[in-house]
Design brief:
Elements lengths: L4 H7 L13 H9 L13 H11 L5 E4 L6 E4 L16 E7 L4 H10 L4 E3 L2 E3 L3 E5 L5 H14 L3 E5 L3 H11 L5 E5 L4 H11 L3 E4 L3 H13 L5 E4 L5 H17 L10 E3 L7 H13 L4 E4 L4 H15 L11 E5 L8 E5 L2 H14 L3 E6 L6 H6 L5 H11 L9 E4 L7 H7 L4 E4 L7 H6 L4
Parallel strand pairs: 3-6, 3-12, 6-7, 7-8, 8-9, 9-10, 11-12, 14-15, 16-17
Antiparallel strand pairs: 1-2, 4-5, 13-15
Helix pairs in contact: 1-2, 5-6, 6-7, 10-11, 14-15
Bound molecules: iron/sulfur cluster.
Length: 447
């Protein structure tokens, strides 16, 4: 059972030195209990207390890192069943499968696809893993593939074989990249555990069913391997979904440690149809895969998948927000239009994108509405005439333009009267309600 804040407090030094970033040991204990702090932030915890606290403050699902440095991908570390309870912590890692039986051109094509990335609301979205599967039975060939993956892709690597000798060949080439070793099974457990320990790499366990999985992870943890990813072996949608939910529920609600690990799924093993595979993957982004291996990356399914993942793994209590300020779009001058919008990121990117499309250089004033969209902010009293007036005066736009005209979103046209009072001498213009109409509006705008 997790310790309460008070129980944790009793184990802390109680000197209130503040080095952990909060003023008191009690505040640190409360943050620790809420999962908002890391024990390592306090340099003065005794070893004995550390042991007790590490165990007690560990998330019910272990966090596992695959790869190092810029390639590092963290999976697991989840603490809730449902996103709205708190938030999901570590986004599902998405991997492309590459077989060492593919010809050179195919391998090159797959590796190149690991560089696919998309810009969305100011974030770069990309898949971050490459899964190398040994189908040839040839350790030399597999090691050569591992070497290529390290040199030509920027992804964290999964080495796939059930033969410890083959895995070792791959590890000899790239062990310092800390790849995920897939997989330990009931037949090779000891040998693969030794490899994981010798190279300090995370290891995936594959079983046929949850019972066997729990036995294997228990054996592994007893042997000293702690960074584990689990594969229940299910290869049908229904069975896999049932097991994903059961694993999460047992780990969180029953504190069942043998299943408290991130999972790995193989969407491509459940269908031959590319679009169906994408749909299956999208289901397991929500429930509850740590890593999903796809048979291939295709833009038309990868993009929606990474966008879905971004939406699921953002904090539902904190809207994506853009920094308040004056944004120059297309090199505006003193005669350029001035548009006002809120700082909900999606709104900002739509509006700035439409201004760009119009090819009418403009100033875009982004006001801090706590990440709320135009109508929501207005309804919450955060986008009203008095606040907008104060923002426009302090932001300094008046020094950049000759005219005194400001275009407000059509949805808050009702604030125009109040704004005329707040911004004496300014002409308040009502812009379009929808972003899609901004281009036409700006093309006909005159200073
Ligand atoms: Fe207390 Fe440790 Fe934080 Fe200092 S660093 S205030 S001793 S918890």
């Amino acid at each position: 059972m997790p310790l309460t804040g008070i129980e944790i407090f009793k184990l802390l030094p109680k000197t209130n030195c503040g080095e952990c970033g909060v003023p008191t040991c009690l505040a640190f204990a409360m943050s620790l209990a809420a999962g908002k702090a890391d024990l390592s932030a306090c340099p003065y915890v005794s070893d004995e207390a550390k042991e007790k606290l590490s165990e007690a403050s560990a998330p019910p699902i272990v966090t596992v890192s695959v790869g190092t440095g810029e390639r590092e991908v963290k999976v697991g570390g989840e603490t809730v069943m449902f996103r709205h309870e708190k938030r999901f912590e570590n986004p599902t890692g998405i991997a492309i499968l590459v077989s060492d039986n593919m010809d050179d051109a195919q391998i090159t094509e797959r590796i190149e696809k690991t560089h696919l990335s998309y810009d969305r609301v100011g974030l770069t979205l990309r898949p971050e893993l490459i899964a190398l599967r040994c189908d040839s039975g040839d350790g030399v060939k597999f090691a050569a593939l591992a070497k290529r993956a390290r040199e030509e892709s920027a992804s964290a690597i999964i080495l796939m074989s059930e033969d410890p000798a083959i895995l070792e060949s791959g590890l000899k080439e790239i062990a310092d990249e800390k790849p995920l070793i897939y997989a330990a099974t009931k037949d090779n457990l000891e040998a693969v555990a030794e490899l994981a320990k010798a190279h300090s790499c995370p290891v995936a366990v594959k079983a046929s069913g949850l019972e066997e999985l729990a036995q294997l992870t228990s054996s592994l943890t007893e042997s000293g391997v702690k960074k584990i990813v689990i594969d229940s072996g299910a290869r049908t949608l229904r069975k896999a979904l049932e097991e994903q939910v059961n694993i999460r529920s047992l780990a969180l609600n029953k504190k069942y440690r043998p299943l408290g690990f991130p999972t790995i799924m193989f969407a491509g093993d459940m269908t031959d149809d590319h679009m169906r595979e994408a749909v299956i993957a999208s289901i397991f982004v929500t429930k509850y895969a740590g890593i999903i291996v796809l048979s291939d990356f295709r833009g038309e399914s990868l993009f929606p998948l990474v966008v879905e993942r971004m939406n699921i793994f953002t904090d539902p209590q904190r809207p994506l927000a853009t920094t308040e300020g004056i944004y120059e779009v297309g090199g505006p001058n003193e005669n350029s239009p001035v548009l006002l919008t809120c700082n909900f990121s999606l709104t900002y990117f739509i509006v700035s994108g439409e201004i760009e499309n119009s090819r009418v250089p403009s100033y875009l004033l982004v006001m801090d509405t706590e990440g709320l969209s135009v109508l929501t902010a207005w309804a919450a009293g955060k986008f009203s005439a008095d606040l907008i007036g104060a923002f426009v005066k302090k932001c300094g736009i008046a020094d950049k333009i000759k005219h005194k005209k400001i275009i407000i979103p059509g949805y808050i046209a009702i604030e125009s009267g109040g704004l005329e009072e707040e911004l004496a001498g300014w002409e308040i213009q009502i812009g379009p309600r929808e972003g899609a109409h901004i281009t036409a509006y700006l093309k006909s705008w005159q200073a």
